[in-house]
Amino acid sequence: MNQRLIDVIDRASAANSAEARVAAFDWGALTGELDSYGCAVLPKLLSPAECRNIAALYPDGSHFRSHIIMAGHGFGKGEYRYFKYPLPDLIGGIRTALYPHLASIANEWNARMGMDQRFPADHASYLQHCHDAGQTKPTPLLLQYAPGDFNCLHQDLYGDLWFPVQVAILLSEPDRDFTGGEFALTEQRPRMQSRVEVVPLRQGDAVAFAVHNRPVQGAKGNYRVNLRHGVSRIRSGMRHTVGIIFHDAR
User: Fold this and answer.
1) InterPro entries per the record (predicted)?
2) Do 195 and 215 form a contact (C-beta atoms < 8 A)?
């Protein structure tokens, strides 16, 4: 069997595995969490071995298209690398498998907020829209934090087209590999103080969260709230995370 055929089989196997594990979650409950709080945890999306294997990719620049030092851009302190296409099979498979579930939520949110944009049911079609708009660079990334590092509150918007939900997967184990480094989400409601949601995660857990806006039901109908996300200061050890962003960038 030649290497090209082996690679095709491996990608198909990874895609099937990703689809099965994503489908096993209670998406009704997850949708309720996202509607209520702007985020939802997908526990044990990746195994410890998968987490270690992905984190081990970080030093090898051949997997990535760019390397960002956060301090140089005012993003905080730490660093990350954007994967290049083709993505690692597991990350690409998870991205593809998650998208239809999240697209359904995004379409409902846009309808409630009075926004016209709707997202296609499959990820390949959405990526084609991005590419037609000149957004062709892959956005999944691998982040690395050392003691004293943090990520400022921000929104991952990379062009005219952006997807309203993204996912972060914690690859390191809290209190063993690192301390500190909590994932935090802030929500600004009109004429109100910001609400903070701190999301406890273990190794392999993923959090799906709103990128920019989400609808909230008020006394006079739905209104938009604005969200930002970040990571608190790492106090010791090393923290690795995979970020899965569903739109491509310019």
Assistant:
1) DUF2086 (IPR018655)
2) no
2 C-beta neighbours (distance < 10 Å), count: 7
Six token digits for residue 73: 């851009």
Q: Which residues, 6 or more positions from 172, have their beta carbon under 8 angstroms from its beta carbon? A: 51, 55, 178, 203, 237, 238, 239, 240, 241
User: Does the model's pTM come out above 0.90?
Assistant: yes
Q: Say how far apart CA 199 and CA 34 lie, in whole Å.
A: 13
- Residues 112, 215: Cα–Cα separation, whole Å: 6
Q: Give dist(CA 224, CA 110) in Å, integer.
A: 10
For 60-109, the three-class secondary structure string (H helix, E strand, C coil) is CHHHEEEEEEHHHHCCEECEEEEECCCCCHHHHHHHHHHHHHHHHHHHHH
Q: What is the pLDDT of residues 82-131, one digit of tens each?
A: 999 999 999 999 999 999 999 999 999 999 999 999 999 999 999 999 99
Percent of the chain exceeding pLDDT 70 equals 94
The segments of the chain whose pLDDT lies below 50 read: 1, 3-10, 12
The reply to whether CATH 2.40.160.20 applies to domain 3-244 is no
